[in-house]
Amino acid sequence: MPSKMEMIKTVNTYYKRIIELILELHNEDLSSAIPGHCMKITGLGSNELEFLWDNIHEKHPSIDTFIVSENINSSHKYISATKLVEYRNKQNAPLLVLIPSNSRTAAEDSYGNATFKEISLEGIEHKLKLELKSRIPDEYAFLIKNEILKYLEFTSIGTVSIIKYLLALEENGYSKEAIGNNLYLLNLLPDEKLVLDAEKIRSRLNFNLESTLLLSSFNKPLYDRIAELPLEPNTLQKDLVSFIKKENEARNIDEICRLINESYPNLNFGNWKIPDLDFSHIKLHVEEIKSNNFKVEDGRKVIYVEENRTAKVKIRISTIPSPRERSDLRYFRVILMAVDGGEGEEVSVLRKLKNSSSNRPYRDATIDLDSNMIEEGSYFFKVLAEDEHGNILNANDDFKDVKIQKAFEEELKLDENYSKNNFSYKLTCDSEDFDYVVEEAAERIDNQRKDKLNNVLQAFFKYRIEKIKSDEENDMPIPSENSNLWLNDIAKHTSTFHINYSERHNYQINLSSKLRKIENIFLENSSSFGYVKGELKNSAAAVGFDSIKFVESELTSIIPNPVLKLRREIFKLIRESNESNDGVIETTDLFNHYEVIKDYIKKLSGWTSELRNQVSNEELNSEEKSKIQYFLTELQFLDVARIKTKLPNGDDTEALLLSPLHPLRLS
């Protein structure tokens, strides 16, 4: 068990890591500060600010750094609010003031926001938590992230508690025993047996939560609390009574868990005789998902829901043996999972429903997908079967893909202890993937919804075809007022564009915001040829990119000016195809610019053909031919997006996307 000194060390380490992260994130601001530049940091205690002062003084000695003090202090680290004004007015060096969180000094004029730029600590704890999670050894990552921390999210466990828990493991070494014993930092009883059987982790956590809640229910008589604990009779009841009487000053769950961890190893939850957790497995299959909101686009289900509305989805579940045959099957838990190319990432628990006594071999669960609660993205459902203690009865489901299941079985033949966690793929308890798109609740015309198209060119053809069919004058369509615009911003997963030509021609174009962003970057660099280089965020539910930029090609310097001029003209026409000057090719009236696009493709094709012919020119020396060969290689990447991402196993991969502005697609 860790001693009290070790616990204090963990707390100190917490602040140390917070401060190190502050300095890392704001290193550029501190390094580039010049005389007259005034900054401040607030929100830390006095002890932590002294540690921060030492670090800043060591790494940024050119900055005048002081801790604001209300009391007279002879230390050169401290300064009064009055003295601070003098330093601020001198402007001999950059000035940084560290303001204790409990400071009652009038903040006002001495170091107000108008004069001092605040170095924000907002989100610093969240960043540290993510960093610590990423450093968990692979051997324990799934257990800690999914089976413990993710499962405990419903308890509103604090970020600080999670950080302290992960820091303790990192400091003292990861082991199965340490993972359980350090639960006291999450306000749970230390449990040295927590992860000895992975299938029973959630059950043990449930009993632990129930027990800590009862032990800290000070409104109940002591013996009533003990009697209600999930303990076999005549085991640890007397020891628990003695503990509570002796430690009568422990008046919250935090103190109770800490004391048991420090001084009462006999009360470790691993020693509790709790109800029998043995159970047998079932096989669960998600047969199908249905919804009136589903539409199939390019062979994939898409569910459209208007803002502030809810879409209902019915999930059909079957089990082997059937739900009625298993008396211990009490609940089905439905979880929303974000698609990540592998086993998925848990987003939230949508519903927990009771198993019924129906004779049917299946069960139906109706799920609400609220547009106010769920972001746009790609998802699937995972269904878990549970007994009354929270044991997952279908923890050994087969893989959804028969080929993957067969590969896993081959590995089992070689090693009977081979873990299913080594295969990051979907199981039979997972539904098919679907896209979730939130639409703006725009006014309907004649109570009719907008037809969904892929681009404005399709709208043009639908308009012209109807004119021909009805023998009307074959005119060019003109967007009506309050159309030819984006209905939402690019911060959502899907961008929606509205184009209306008449009451009968009312259209909506849905475009991936990531693809729109890529296209925007090309359009912003109309004077250059090149490619877009980007890296996706790890989560499929995330919006945008980790990084994205335009990389100019050396070909720009040798491409004929007439080609560049036409390119600039076309890109400008695309951008200015709507009033907000943020058009993309899918939203552009290309039918009005046919000639200039044709001319551009013709001139560019002629030049590239000429370049290829030069390779076989015998008058050129080897160096010149090599240079031309290099240019031809560069040609392959023009108007292409090179996007990096990670595979489910963590390996890096790169996809090449032919942008809509590529000559092959323009033609």
In short:
By secondary structure, this protein is an alpha/beta fold. It is 34% helix and 22% strand. The strands form five sheets. Strands 7-8-14-13-10-11 form a six-stranded mixed β-sheet, with no helix packed on it.
Structure characterization notes:
By secondary structure, the chain is α/β, with parallel strands linked by helices. It has 4 domains: 27-118; 126-271, no CATH class; 283-436, Immunoglobulin-like, CATH 2.60.40; 451-666, no CATH class. Helices cover 34% and strands 22% of the residues. The chain has 19 helices and 22 strands. The strands form 5 sheets. A 6-stranded mixed beta sheet has the order 7-8-14-13-10-11, with no helix packed on it. Strands 3-2-4-1-5 form a 5-stranded parallel beta sheet. Helix 5 (124-134) packs parallel to helix 7 (159-172). The longest helix is centred in the first third of the chain and has 22 residues, at 4-25. 28% of the residues are buried. Mean pLDDT is 85; it is low at 1-11 and 443-447.
List the helices and strands and how they pair.
Layout: H1 4-25, H2 27-31, E1 38-44, H3 46-59, E2 64-68, E3 78-79, H4 81-90, E4 95-100, E5 117-118, H5 124-134, H6 138-150, H7 159-172, H8 176-181, H9 201-215, H10 222-227, H11 237-246, H12 253-263, E6 283-290, E7 294-297, E8 300-306, E9 310-320, E10 331-338, E11 345-354, E12 362-370, E13 377-386, H13 402-414, E14 434-439, E15 451-453, H14 456-469, E16 485-486, E17 494-502, E18 505-512, H15 513-524, E19 530-536, E20 545-552, H16 561-575, H17 594-614, H18 622-635, E21 640-646, E22 652-658, H19 663-666
Parallel strand pairs: 1-4, 1-5, 2-3, 2-4, 8-14, 15-18, 19-21
Antiparallel strand pairs: 6-9, 7-8, 9-12, 10-11, 10-13, 13-14, 16-17, 17-18, 19-20, 21-22
Helix pairs in contact: 1-3, 1-5, 1-7, 5-7, 16-17, 17-18
